[in-house]
Amino acid sequence: AVAAAEARFISSAKGKGLFATRNIRKGEIVFVERPVVSSQFLWNALYNYRACDHCLRALETAEENAQRLLGKSSLVLPHPEQCSIRKDLHQQCPRCQVTYCSAECRQAALEQYHQVLCLGPSRDDPTHPLNKLQEAWRNMHYPPETSSIMLMARMVATVKQAKDKEWWIKTFSQFCNKTANEEEEIVHKLLGDKFKGQLELLRLLFMEALYDEHLSRWFTPEGFRSLFALVGTNGQGIGTSSLSQWVHACDALELPMLQREELDAFIDQLYKDIEKESGEFLNCEGSGLYVLQSCCNHSCIPNAETSFPENNFLLHLTALEDIEAGEEICISYLDCCQRERSRHSRNKILRENYLFTCSCPKCLAQADDADVTSDEEEEGEGETDDAELEDEMTDV
């Protein structure tokens, strides 16, 4: 099959974009992409959101997942046969006991980066350089999380283990690069006011844990900041959930009307109860670097969206409307509520989080609107935090 999309260079200001190579129908999957590297967020893992250490597939059964989020071990889910988790396939690294969803994932991790990062018997040793690095990161980056130092660690480990190091360095270098000033802004955004001076501490810990002469540039202050900015700019949130998989499977069941109504009411109530207990933190969450997806530019009226319907790191890009050959494929970096707000509000969020001003057709059409936010928006102003952005990024 011919690929439906390809990356093309647009301009030095805009960088690359993704364009349709043939006509694409609404609802069609444009591509399914696996990340070159990915990693679960550190707080997410610490709080027992159990995911495959390689592909982020949720490892709990839907029932265990619901019990934990609800804080109620007596909960029983109907239709347990609709849960897709196969515990009989799970495997652990024999040296450090991290868990994988399958032998394939364990092998893939071992071949790409895990030999370098395996902590062996030092898994719980707080003085191990990798544990020190993770602890420092967690202390700077509280939930809601948007990135992880371990994504950078896996990039280094991948190059260290690779026979063809240059190929990997080239792969990582094709992700969008920023100017030094923009990098400063991204680092500031990722670490916040309180911690921006701590980039140097992270760099020293990163060096202690992972230094490699082939990559000496990544360990210099400038190179480390660039790596940090690369991950901050291109990292795509990944969300997986065995509970949401179970819900989708239940939605597809052919049931008599009364049973259908009972099941729907049960699921609605379950989500309400979970929200009281766990808030918005429903998914196993992490981030990954995707070569094609990272070329997708933003539009406030996107013609495609990303999702993770396979309950792992495989990203599906799906067309939201018909797209003609040669047309640019755009996703939205904003969630549905944010997209409904004024042009001024949308661009405020985009500038703060992604360092650009949008010129999509919707923004151009509203260019003459007053640069003020409406009253009801003023009230909502404080709510546009990373959690909302992250929610959009990790929709499953």
UniProtKB/TrEMBL annotation:
Chief place of localization: cytoplasm
Biological process annotations from GO: methylation; negative regulation of gene expression, epigenetic; regulation of cell differentiation
Keyword annotations of the record: Cytoplasm, Metal-binding, Methyltransferase, S-adenosyl-L-methionine, Transferase, Zinc, Zinc-finger
Any Gene Ontology CC annotation: cytoplasm
Molecular function terms from GO: histone H3K36 trimethyltransferase activity; histone H4K20 trimethyltransferase activity; zinc ion binding
Domain of life: Eukaryota
Location within or outside the cell: Cytoplasm
A Pfam family reported for this protein in Swiss-Prot or TrEMBL: SET
SET domain ranges (all copies): 5-334
Keyword Translocase applies: no
Annotated signal sequence range: none
EC number(s) recorded for this UniProt protein: 2.1.1.359, 2.1.1.372
UniProt-annotated stretches for the region Disordered: 370-396
Known catalytic reactions: L-lysyl(20)-[histone H4] + 3 S-adenosyl-L-methionine = N(6),N(6),N(6)-trimethyl-L-lysyl(20)-[histone H4] + 3 S-adenosyl-L-homocysteine + 3 H(+); L-lysyl-[protein] + 3 S-adenosyl-L-methionine = N(6),N(6),N(6)-trimethyl-L-lysyl-[protein] + 3 S-adenosyl-L-homocysteine + 3 H(+); L-lysyl(36)-[histone H3] + 3 S-adenosyl-L-methionine = N(6),N(6),N(6)-trimethyl-L-lysyl(36)-[histone H3] + 3 S-adenosyl-L-homocysteine + 3 H(+)
Ranges in coiled-coil conformation: none
InterPro entries recorded: SET_dom, SET_dom_sf, SMYD5_SET, TPR-like_helical_dom_sf
Main enzyme class: transferase
The name this protein goes by in its record: Protein-lysine N-trimethyltransferase SMYD5
Organism: Indicator maculatus
Organismal lineage: Eukaryota, Metazoa, Chordata, Craniata, Vertebrata
